[in-house]
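Dear colleague,

Thank you for sharing your sequence with our group. We've completed the structure prediction you requested, and as agreed, I am returning the results in plain text so they can be pasted directly into your records. Please verify that the sequence below matches your submission; if there's any discrepancy, let me know and we will rerun it promptly.
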Amino acid sequence: MTSLHVHDFTSILHVNQPKTSSTVDVISTRIPIRPYRPITKHLSMRCSRVVNHIDNSLKPSSSSSFFNTTFQIVPLKIGIIGFGNFGQFLAKAFKQQGHDVLATSRSDYSEYCQKHDIGFFRHIDDLCEAQPDIVLLCSSILSTENVVREIPFHKLKSDTIFADALSVKQFPRDLFLEVLPPEFGILCTHPMFGPDSGKDGWDGLRFVYNEVRIAENNIQREKCAQFLSIFENEGCQMIQMSCEEHDRYAAGSQFVTHTVGRILSHLELESTPINTKGYESLLQLTENTVSDSFDLYYGLFVYNVNATEQIENLGRAFDTVKQKLFGRLHEVLNKQMTERNTGVDKANLPAYFLPREK
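Please find the predicted structure tokens below.
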């Protein structure tokens, strides 16, 4: 453990409190960092970095009230459910910042986990018995409900925080509120990047989160801040946003992007010797979207209440463009027919409008 001088929450600790054993327990759980990225820099920037979209202001979130103190750092124990490419991608950053990572998945990743010093469990019951501080769902959208309902909650600590990294937010929030014990914390997150876009680092990339249910004035609040600081320390742009607002924006950006990419894939576009930058962007868009499973795309459609409206808007927009194109064409053809029938002087017409000489 490393001693570090940083800011802490006034809601949890008080400057004039004597350092009793209970106080030491609270302040012993703080934010681990990688050696090459000083934590003081990021914590001092927290209030200015967090953009609060819930009240459309630049007020810092409640987890941003700090004062100076010295304490011991204890790493989080993060349990990841669904250890595919995205789960492994996040786990790498967690490990680099000194946290303990546990994982479970339908597929066997025991060899990968052994190589990267990650605890792997074939069954979710065994992961819960290890009692992680944070349970992070990285499962597919379609399988999430079945996964959550099978979790043996009684094997977890009462201050456990459940988080998700799904591309939709209202669905996991409502599921957590329905299924989880009331003392469990709920943190909905969406890293707006993945293994491809984040392969060179996360600096400047957006991370959306909503603290749906985090207890005040206890260790759960501290664990939540510690987990969020992982993404802050990587340089993410932290955006606090309600789940409803996230899904509304995502339908107009992420879902539309995936839909256009899927449509273009059916055109079987290929690179040419005369590619423009715009065309190359379309090729890249197509490649990026079809590399994701259709289940992901279907999940974006089924579990975002705004997706149906967007797909209807796309259809209407395409019809509008077609009508404008063919409407203009009909106008030109009608004008040509009228001019030919009325004997308009051919010298005043462009050559490509003139009939061919027989």
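Summary note from our side: The chain has twelve helices and eleven strands.

Kind regards,
the structure core
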